[in-house]
Amino acid sequence: MLYEANIYMENLIKKLEEQISFLQQELSQMSEELYSQQKEIIILKKEISNFKRRIDELDSGTETSISKEDKKPPHY
Questions:
Q1: pLDDT mean over 36-49
Q2: Cystine design at 76: which of 1, 25, 35, 72 (Cβ 3.0–4.6 Å)?
Q3: Distance (Å, whole) CA 11 – CA 14
Q4: What distance in Å separates the CA atoms of residue 41 and residue 33, rounded to the nearest whole number?
Q5: Would the pTM of this model clear 0.85, i.e. be above it?
Q6: Containing H/E element for 29?
Q7: What gap in Å lies between CA 68 and CA 76, rounded to an integer?
Q8: pLDDT tens-digit profile of 4-31?
Q9: At CA 17, angle to CA 11 and CA 21, rounded to 5?
């Protein structure tokens, strides 16, 4: 009886160790993905800021490097 309980506990410990290992791996992958998404968000925020600045330049007429073809037509 004691022997069976010992085997059961060893199996249980082994299963728990496997689950912990799996969870550690999943956590590592999630952390890497989160980091990647944070970098992408920073890049996208910069792009949005550049687009807003560009739109403001177009609206105010203070554009400097815009060719005539890029301007809105008069009927727009």
A1: 98
A2: 72
A3: 5
A4: 12
A5: no
A6: helix 2-60
A7: 15
A8: 999 999 999 999 999 999 999 999 999 9
A9: 145
